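Fold sample X.
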Amino acid sequence: MTSTELPVVAAVDGSTHSGDALDWAAREAAGRGLPLLIVHVRLLTRRADPEAQEREAAELLAQAVRRVNGIAPGLRPTTLAPLDFPSAALVALSRDASLVVVGSRGLGGFRSLMLGSNSLATASMAKCPVVVIHGGRRDEEPDETAAEVFPDVVAGVAADESSEAVLEFAFETAAVRPGARLRIVHGWTMFSSMLSGGPVFDRDAAADAAERSLAELTAGWREKYPQVEVVKEPVNGSASRTLVTASATAALTVIGRRKGGESLGLGLSPVAQTTLTHALGPVAVVPC
């Protein structure tokens, strides 16, 4: 199986959030021409009845397949029910996946938490991009209209090489969405300008430097994807706050995970974790 045929993996557990994630994954797989793998992880616990777990998993997966057939006929998803810890199973599957899609919270999550531990762990450690679907933004609107109401893809970038993977995923995603613009957002402050070796005391010069950095970052990608309309948005302010605000009117917000923190046990940068936790729509976390 080539990299272009690697499946979209959708994690389901019977929760409303995982149902939303399954719907999103089915549409994305169909739009990208990729296979869909639906996964329900049977929990490792001594108190569980293995036979009952298998029956429940089979029923849940059968329901998920029927749901996908109603959304994307002809997709023909496959299913898997490994016995493992949820995040461990999804991270393992991510090695041979194009994308992993999860709900922001599962059945075991506390309602007061905006992001469940399994979603956070998967986004922190997966080997491929992970999309976390936040529920509640459009509860009263039919799902079919979401792409029409919020067509844009937002990509949060830093002015360095860490943004290459983010831009690649963002351009690919925008290219398969008819009418979608790609809004490339870069939040900057005078402090970040200083850290990157830019102007320190001249705000206008710092703004010009941020705009030039965005132009340099996007030049090659715009040539590769000429069909994608690009809007560059250098914003003076907190990067995470800027991305959370942008996520309210985005079909998908794409952010980089930054691998550097993994050696310290930190899979997500502060900007990525804040954005992922507080976003108002779907967020893709890209290893970079």
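Fold sample Y, listed below.
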Amino acid sequence: MNDTDVTLLWQQFRQSLEDTGSALGLSGYNWEELLVYGLGQLLVTLMIMLLFWLLYVAGCLLMRWLLGRLDRGAGPYRTGRVVLRYLLGLATLVAIVAQYGAADGVIKGMARAGLMALAFYVLWQLLSRGLITRLSRRHLDSSLVQLCKNTLSVSLMALGAITVMAQFGFDVLSIIAGLGIVGIAVGFAAQSTLSNFIAGITLLIERPFRIGDWVCIHGQEGRVVRIAFRTTWLRTRDNVFTMLPNDSVATSDIINYSAEGPTRIRIPVHIAYKDSVAQARAVIMPILSAHPMSINNDALTPRVQLRELADSSVVLSAQVWVSAQDVEVKGRISCELLESIKQGLDEAGIEIPFPHLQLHLDEARGLEPVFGRRRSADDDTTRNH
């Protein structure tokens, strides 16, 4: 491509720009000057960004050297690097906006708003760390700690946003009044959601159960895996997740199997009246003690007690304690023990009866002809043999 082709290409480009400007009503502009001005502004912007980047690198190196001499560790360095990056980024933004001819009020508002946002961020970091430390010392539930932290974050963010908007001339009082009216309307439209939210806070404060506890709520039995602001999540033995509204959870009967530690399993065992209770106990006790998940110590020992004299059997109660961590498999433990007890009683010759009736007829003369004929037939058969 020679100089003539380049000149021709440039003329075509200029003609295209002029035609485009005429179509958009922008005729009369010197596109060459605009292009040169735009390239110059872009070059200055890049130089400003390069300058502040070099300042950031130099500041990080200096800060690392100083903290290394003071032996402060990596935590202060990371925090200082974040603050330095934010300040230099704010300075870069203000310089670039000033370069393109922004008004003094806008530039000052941006600078003040940026510094105030940084102040609120530092305040949030300090308050949240102090709050978490104090609440952790009181051994509060992790969900309640998270709720307090989220409340603090939302409050500081709202206050910071209002303060930043005030720097740009917004009428903060009108915005707050409008948000209050909107909040009332949303409150009426979402009564159930607010009810579940308040109930969730109540559950986190009263703590009838914690994450990991095995509970029964509304007939739903499972392990608590999450306590959210609106719902409580349970995982059943079948690995099915159930979400219960906090409003219904707070007003229902709650059975917590894990709150007091070990739980007792009761297994009813029926034996015949002719068999010995002591013998059955001697068979069942080793089975209860030998199970790997049963607790066998001085305070919590397996036992077999006589519970009832039923119509057709003697009812024994085989009792064994399991730890709170094994409550989830309590059904499996009961099945394993029951199968072992059945096998042990069969081997010992102890009968496990089934319900039956024994009929006694006093002076049943109406049946005498029937039994008489049957008795005479049996006698004839005996004589023939």
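Sample Y note: The chain has three domains: 41-169, 200-256, 263-347.
Also: The CA atoms of residues 199 and 251 lie 9 Å apart.
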